[in-house]
Amino acid sequence: MISIEDIKWAESSHYQDTPYDAYGDQGTPEQKKTFRPIGINRNFETHILQIRNDVPAEIAGVQWLAFGPNTFNSMVPFYTNVTTTPESFQTTPKFNLNKIFWLNKLTAQLGDTNYRVYGELEDAFEQKSLAQCHKIQHDTDKEVKGLSGKELQDKLNAANQLMADTVYNNTVELLGQMVDEGHGLMTLKYDLLD
Questions:
Q1: Residue 189, pLDDT above cutoff 70
Q2: What is the DSSP code string of 33-94?
Q3: Could you state, in order of their start, the residue ranges of all structural domains in the chain?
Q4: Phi/psi zone of residue 88: left (φ > 0), alpha (ψ -120 to 50 degrees), beta?
Q5: Which of 15, 39, 44, 85 could form a disulfide with 70 if both were Cys (CB 3.0 to 4.6 A apart)?
Q6: pLDDT of residue 112
Q7: 115 vs 120: CA distance, rounded Å
Q8: Is the full-model pTM beyond 0.85?
Q9: Residue 68: what pLDDT?
Q10: Where are the transmembrane segments (predicted)?
Q11: Looking only at Cα atoms, what is the longest distance across the chain?
């Protein structure tokens, strides 16, 4: 069975652990540019449509969604039997840090400057976010048994909002960790011991 995490890993590929990885220690500069990676900076969004067969039809449809470069984002399993999209996951063409798309673009841009430093932070963020979303989804699946119509949609809207808020807050936390970690790596710096 192929998991959502397997698909996300493939969609985020930059040829990890090969001579073709632009972030890796292997390979020559020419090899690192031989193949175009999937998880590049021009990714706008990635989605995985899932129809689950182990739950009632009313909650079977899930759209896993992530905005921005895949190497630096996390998938969110939004229920599809809903009437609204969480505000932070609505897009806008202008830079706005209240939108997950722009926040992910910022973490990706910073992360790209030194993947060795920021890669582990991003991996931890993604694992934490996925685990939290899986738990919310699991709990919601149980809570909505027997519900239908507007009552069901209201619960699913609330679960989607909770997952969006969770991933948004985790992304803000990631950005803060990246700034803290990277501050000491700046070229333009001065220390009293210099």
A1: no
A2: GSS--SS-TT--EEEEEEE-SSS-GGGTEEEEEEES-GGG---EEEESS-S---GGGS--SS
A3: 39-184
A4: alpha
A5: 39
A6: 87
A7: 8
A8: yes
A9: 84
A10: none
A11: 68
